[in-house]
Transposase
Amino acid sequence: MKVVKTLKHTITSHRRMLDATLHVYQEALSFLITVIQEQFMALESLSTQAVVTAVERLTHRTRHNPNPFYTEFDQRFYKFPSYFRRSAIAEAFGIVKSHHSRFQLWQAERQHAGQEGKRFSKKPPTLQAQHQAFPCLYKGNMFKRTSDTTANIKVFHQGDWVWLPITFKEQDLFKRNVWSMKECNPTLVQKGKRYALHIAYDGDVKLTQAEISKQRVCAVDLGLTNSAVCSVMDANGTVLARAFINQAKEKDRMRQITGKLKQAQRQSGLGAKPNFWRRMNGLQTHIVHDTAHRIIAFAQKHSAEVIVMEFLGKMRLLKGTWGAKRLRAKLQFWAKRRIQTKVSEMAHFLGMRVSIINPANTSALAFDGSGFVKRNTKRDVAVFTTGKTYHADLNASYNIGARYVLRSIHKATSEMKMWLSLEAKDPSLAKRTYWTLASLIRVQQALSLQS
């Protein structure tokens, strides 16, 4: 499996001197977006490489192309480097093509709504010419490394393209586990007032090939009260370890800020409120990164080959959820999606597999097979029909891991011979949404008797 990891090298020697380079690249990109949009009917069927060649003929004057159709490009962007130009053309073509794809989807939605007689008020997508894009510095032509922390890059300075020596922070390639991977071309990225070189490393990773009977599964429930609850189990249903991951301080701060944001919006209207959102986004990012790293560390500690999570689907808010409560529910759902994405990326980089299972009834059913549970107002405690009380998210994590193992057994088992006989003994196996940890234990016992 191909994996890519990007390391950030902050540039320490220059700040404002790089502004002009970024500005002229983004202006050239905007111009090329306009050109490709005008000529899109002729360019639509071409490959990206063919589009780069065609747009260069339309915009750039050469000895073999003395009269390009758009002469303004060479006048506005004098001595614009060829590698920058080709990179900008490819990026502009991707932006325009994406816009047309979104417009076609919008037309299909409008047509479908008209056929069903429904009102359609969704606005059509618009093509934005201005983009916060960052240039790629191709090695040899735009970027020449002179040591581990220094390099020469080509920048736009005082109306000309010149080589500029820069100094940047070093990254430990062995610690980041990319020392054996291929180094790609760096990208000049601006964040706030600082600049950095983002260097991607790509390589091949072999995912685990262990049989299901020998696998250890790390089941993760992205709960309501905890950021994540994890449990490691083997194929027989034996729970080997558990972990509760939560950021209580950060969530308390988030609750205060969301309340203040809604209070400010009630007083002064629904404005942007950037200061509140900056703090909220910072806390949200910390929660996501901390949760993902702790999940991976827990899975590594207990030698798990597979990480199993629930399919999140679309966000569904309870009726009567308004104001700050509605905002918190949205933030929590967005955090879950980001955690799931980051865990998948980190797990694949380490050779672990990631599996997604059907979330129906994982929290509603008791792991011991006693039926549906009742949950308290806070929804962190589940009461079984037997009177037993248990942590609701931990109960769900058991069922999540069991469903993955049962699904793997079901795929590997002959449908006509063995699995139907198991369903006859345990009718709850007929519906996958009723699979629990108890179901897995019963199936393993039945399989051991048959063998």
About this structure: Residues 34 and 151 are 34 Å apart (CA to CA).
